[in-house]
Amino acid sequence: MRDRYPFFTTIPMRWGDMDALGHVNNTRYFAYFEQARIQFFEVTGADKVWDKEQGPILASASCNFLKPIVYPTDIEVAMAVTDIRNRSFTVSVAIFRKDSNELFAEGKNGVVWVSYTEGKAINLPPLLVAGLSAHKGRAAQPPSP
Protein backbone atom coordinates (compact mmCIF):
# COMPACT_ATOMS: atom_id res chain seq x y z
CA MET A 1 0.00 0.00 0.00
CA ARG A 2 2.73 2.48 0.94
CA ASP A 3 4.51 1.86 -2.37
CA ARG A 4 1.74 3.75 -4.17
CA TYR A 5 2.90 7.00 -2.60
CA PRO A 6 6.20 8.69 -3.52
CA PHE A 7 6.06 11.34 -0.77
CA PHE A 8 5.90 10.84 3.01
CA THR A 9 6.22 13.23 5.90
CA THR A 10 5.98 12.61 9.62
CA ILE A 11 3.44 14.78 11.41
CA PRO A 12 3.76 15.01 15.19
CA MET A 13 0.54 14.03 16.89
CA ARG A 14 -0.34 16.05 19.97
CA TRP A 15 -2.40 15.06 22.98
CA GLY A 16 -4.67 18.01 22.18
CA ASP A 17 -5.53 16.51 18.77
CA MET A 18 -7.87 14.07 20.51
CA ASP A 19 -11.47 14.83 21.31
CA ALA A 20 -13.71 13.86 24.23
CA LEU A 21 -14.22 10.41 22.69
CA GLY A 22 -10.53 9.60 23.11
CA HIS A 23 -9.41 9.59 19.47
CA VAL A 24 -8.10 12.18 17.02
CA ASN A 25 -10.85 14.60 16.10
CA ASN A 26 -11.92 14.35 12.45
CA THR A 27 -10.99 17.98 11.77
CA ARG A 28 -7.36 17.24 12.69
CA TYR A 29 -7.04 14.84 9.74
CA PHE A 30 -7.54 17.82 7.42
CA ALA A 31 -4.92 19.78 9.40
CA TYR A 32 -2.49 16.86 8.94
CA PHE A 33 -3.23 16.89 5.20
CA GLU A 34 -2.66 20.66 5.12
CA GLN A 35 0.73 20.43 6.86
CA ALA A 36 1.83 17.66 4.50
CA ARG A 37 0.57 19.63 1.48
CA ILE A 38 2.74 22.62 2.40
CA GLN A 39 5.80 20.37 2.77
CA PHE A 40 4.85 18.67 -0.52
CA PHE A 41 4.76 22.09 -2.22
CA GLU A 42 8.36 22.60 -1.14
CA VAL A 43 9.59 19.35 -2.75
CA THR A 44 7.63 19.88 -5.97
CA GLY A 45 8.94 23.41 -6.56
CA ALA A 46 5.66 25.20 -5.88
CA ASP A 47 7.44 27.32 -3.28
CA LYS A 48 9.71 28.69 -6.05
CA VAL A 49 6.80 29.99 -8.16
CA TRP A 50 4.31 30.80 -5.40
CA ASP A 51 4.31 34.47 -4.45
CA LYS A 52 1.90 37.25 -3.49
CA GLU A 53 0.53 37.38 -7.07
CA GLN A 54 -0.02 33.70 -7.86
CA GLY A 55 -0.23 30.39 -6.09
CA PRO A 56 -2.37 27.47 -4.96
CA ILE A 57 -5.93 27.46 -3.70
CA LEU A 58 -7.43 24.32 -2.21
CA ALA A 59 -10.53 23.65 -4.30
CA SER A 60 -11.65 20.36 -2.78
CA ALA A 61 -10.73 18.06 0.07
CA SER A 62 -12.09 14.67 1.00
CA CYS A 63 -11.27 12.10 3.64
CA ASN A 64 -12.41 8.55 4.23
CA PHE A 65 -11.90 7.79 7.91
CA LEU A 66 -10.90 4.13 8.07
CA LYS A 67 -9.65 3.72 11.64
CA PRO A 68 -9.44 5.98 14.68
CA ILE A 69 -6.05 7.33 15.67
CA VAL A 70 -5.38 7.24 19.40
CA TYR A 71 -2.57 9.04 21.21
CA PRO A 72 0.30 8.20 21.32
CA THR A 73 0.77 7.19 17.69
CA ASP A 74 3.47 8.27 15.30
CA ILE A 75 1.86 9.05 11.94
CA GLU A 76 3.00 9.74 8.41
CA VAL A 77 1.02 11.51 5.73
CA ALA A 78 1.62 10.16 2.23
CA MET A 79 0.92 11.97 -1.02
CA ALA A 80 0.82 11.07 -4.69
CA VAL A 81 -0.10 13.26 -7.64
CA THR A 82 -2.91 11.51 -9.50
CA ASP A 83 -3.95 14.10 -12.07
CA ILE A 84 -2.31 17.15 -13.63
CA ARG A 85 -4.37 19.51 -15.76
CA ASN A 86 -3.61 22.91 -17.27
CA ARG A 87 -4.69 24.91 -14.22
CA SER A 88 -5.11 22.33 -11.49
CA PHE A 89 -3.90 19.06 -10.04
CA THR A 90 -5.17 16.34 -7.74
CA VAL A 91 -3.24 14.68 -4.95
CA SER A 92 -4.21 11.45 -3.22
CA VAL A 93 -3.45 11.57 0.48
CA ALA A 94 -3.23 8.89 3.15
CA ILE A 95 -2.42 8.71 6.85
CA PHE A 96 -0.39 5.69 7.96
CA ARG A 97 1.05 4.58 11.26
CA LYS A 98 4.73 5.51 10.93
CA ASP A 99 6.84 2.76 9.33
CA SER A 100 3.77 0.54 8.95
CA ASN A 101 1.10 -0.38 6.41
CA GLU A 102 -1.60 0.39 8.98
CA LEU A 103 -3.85 2.88 7.21
CA PHE A 104 -5.99 5.32 9.20
CA ALA A 105 -7.45 7.48 6.44
CA GLU A 106 -7.24 8.31 2.77
CA GLY A 107 -8.61 11.07 0.62
CA LYS A 108 -8.00 13.57 -2.17
CA ASN A 109 -7.05 17.23 -2.44
CA GLY A 110 -7.89 19.25 -5.54
CA VAL A 111 -5.64 22.28 -6.00
CA VAL A 112 -6.13 25.12 -8.49
CA TRP A 113 -3.34 27.55 -9.45
CA VAL A 114 -4.69 31.10 -9.37
CA SER A 115 -3.74 34.67 -10.02
CA TYR A 116 -4.46 36.25 -6.65
CA THR A 117 -4.51 39.71 -8.22
CA GLU A 118 -7.03 38.73 -10.94
CA GLY A 119 -8.97 36.24 -8.83
CA LYS A 120 -9.01 33.56 -11.52
CA ALA A 121 -7.36 30.26 -12.41
CA ILE A 122 -4.20 30.42 -14.50
CA ASN A 123 -1.94 27.79 -16.07
CA LEU A 124 0.37 25.84 -13.79
CA PRO A 125 3.97 27.10 -14.09
CA PRO A 126 6.22 24.68 -16.04
CA LEU A 127 8.58 24.27 -13.06
CA LEU A 128 5.63 23.12 -10.94
CA VAL A 129 4.36 20.75 -13.63
CA ALA A 130 7.81 19.13 -13.74
CA GLY A 131 7.88 18.78 -9.94
CA LEU A 132 4.37 17.36 -9.81
CA SER A 133 5.16 14.91 -12.62
CA ALA A 134 8.11 13.61 -10.61
CA HIS A 135 5.70 12.79 -7.76
CA LYS A 136 3.04 10.93 -9.71
CA GLY A 137 1.97 7.92 -7.77
CA ARG A 138 0.16 4.74 -8.41
CA ALA A 139 -2.67 5.61 -6.03
CA ALA A 140 -5.15 6.26 -8.83
CA GLN A 141 -4.03 3.56 -11.23
CA PRO A 142 -6.14 0.43 -11.63
CA PRO A 143 -4.61 -2.81 -10.35
CA SER A 144 -2.59 -4.86 -12.83
CA PRO A 145 -4.43 -7.83 -14.39
Question: Features of this protein?
Answer:
145 residues, alpha+beta, Thiol Ester Dehydrase, Chain A, six-stranded antiparallel β-sheet, 3 helices
Describe this entry's structure for a reader.
This protein is of the alpha+beta class and 145 residues long. It has one domain (2-133): Thiol Ester Dehydrase, Chain A, CATH 3.10.129.10. Helices cover 21% and strands 36% of the residues. Strands 1, 2, 3, 4, 5 and 6 form a six-stranded antiparallel β-sheet that branches. The two termini are 17 Å apart.
Following the backbone from N to C, one meets helices and strands in this order, namely EHHEEEEEH
Total of helices:
3
pLDDT < 50 runs, ≥5 residues: 139-145
Per CATH, what is the topology?
Thiol Ester Dehydrase, Chain A
> How can the largest sheet be summarized?
6 strands, antiparallel
CATH superfamily: Hotdog Thioesterase
Helix content estimate: 10-25%
* Gyration radius, in Å: 16 Å
Annotated CATH architecture? Roll
CATH class: Alpha Beta
Annotate the secondary structure layout:
Layout: E1 7-11, H1 26-44, H2 46-49, E2 54-65, E3 75-84, E4 88-97, E5 103-115, E6 120-121, H3 126-133
Antiparallel strand pairs: 1-3, 2-5, 3-4, 4-5, 5-6
